[in-house]
Amino acid sequence: MIMIKPETFDFIHDLIHHNNRDWFQENKERYLNAKENIDAFADAVLNGFRKIDSSIPSELTSKRCVMRIYRDVRFSKDKSPYKNNFGIGISSKGKGNDGPGYYIHIQPRQSFIAGGYWMPQAEHLKAIRQEIDYNIDDLLNIIEEKNFKTYFGELDQNEKLKTSPKGYESNHPYIEILKLRSFTVTHSFRDEELSSKDAVQKVIDGLSLIHPFCVFLNQAIIS
Q1: Rounded to whole angstroms, what are the CA distances from 99 to 115, 145, 162?
Q2: C-alpha pair distances (Å), 179 with each of 78, 109, 217
Q3: pLDDT level of residue 221 (50, 70, 90 thresholds)
Q4: Segment 155-185, tens digit of pLDDT
Q5: Which domain holds residue 144?
Q6: What would the mean pLDDT of 207-220 be, rounded to a whole number?
């Protein structure tokens, strides 16, 4: 039975309060145990989710999906050497994909899953907006579907233009969607949910709701 162990949450909690190399080295075994747990969880999700999303290759494993806990501090004012979470990126290429995909965030009291396309490059953003303009009914059938809307609510609004994007009038009926610079949805999880015996299935079920949304976004950038 694969789940996020309470010990994994405990390690992250303690790391947040002792984010320095000395403490990390003293607790290296705890980190390795937590990382092993995250890897196993990621592999279990992958094994189940690729039955839903056929673009996830059979050879893709946690090795290519679980993100490093070490921070790149070269250009950051925050010099904390470690992240305060474990991240799992899922796509046809694993983590770091420049395109639609899925993300699992493991952090005490702040865990969530997300999916879609975060901050598309200019060419992809233009294509997605065009697809929305031309085929808005296809998108609405996805994001206004009852289960999707109940689970995620609205599209994430964090990255959004203040004015209309070039080529679109301010009175466009779906201008608020077209203003988005990221096309993502997010659903939070309680620690207890991810530490339950059906945690893997809960995450797969959530990612499955995102799948049609990713298909729509993929179609926009490859057409």
Answers
A1: 11, 23, 24
A2: 31, 31, 16
A3: very high
A4: 999 999 999 999 999 999 999 999 999 999 9
A5: 6-222
A6: 98
- Determine which helix (DSSP H) or strand (DSSP E) holds 87, and give its type and residue range: strand 86-90
User: Going by DSSP bridges, is the β-strand pair 111-117/101-106 parallel, antiparallel, or unpaired?
Assistant: antiparallel
Q: Quick check: is 107 in a domain? A: yes
> How many domains does the chain contain in total?
1
Identity of residue 4: I
Distance of CA 223 to the CA centre of its chain: 24
Check whether 223 has a pLDDT greater than 80: no
The count of other CB atoms within 10 Å of the CB of residue 82 is 20
Distances (CA, A) of 104 to 24, 61, 81, 154: 23, 14, 21, 19
Contact between residue 173 and residue 192 where contact means Cβ atoms under 8 Å apart:
no
pTM of the entire structure?
0.96
CATH of the domain at 98: 3.30.930
What tokens does 212 get?
């049609």
Phi, psi angle pair for 60, to nearest 5°: -70, 125
Query: Given the DSSP bridges, would you call strands 183-189 and 111-117 parallel, antiparallel or unpaired?
Result: antiparallel
Q: For residue 68, is pLDDT > 90?
A: yes
Quick check: is 1 in a domain? no
The amino acid that residue 156 corresponds to is D
DSSP string, 176-218: HHHTBS-EEEEEEE-HHHHTSTTHHHHHHHHHHHHHHHHHHHH
Residue 116 makes CB contacts below 8 A (sequence gap 6+) with 100, 155, 156, 182, 183, 184, 185, 210, 213, 214, 217
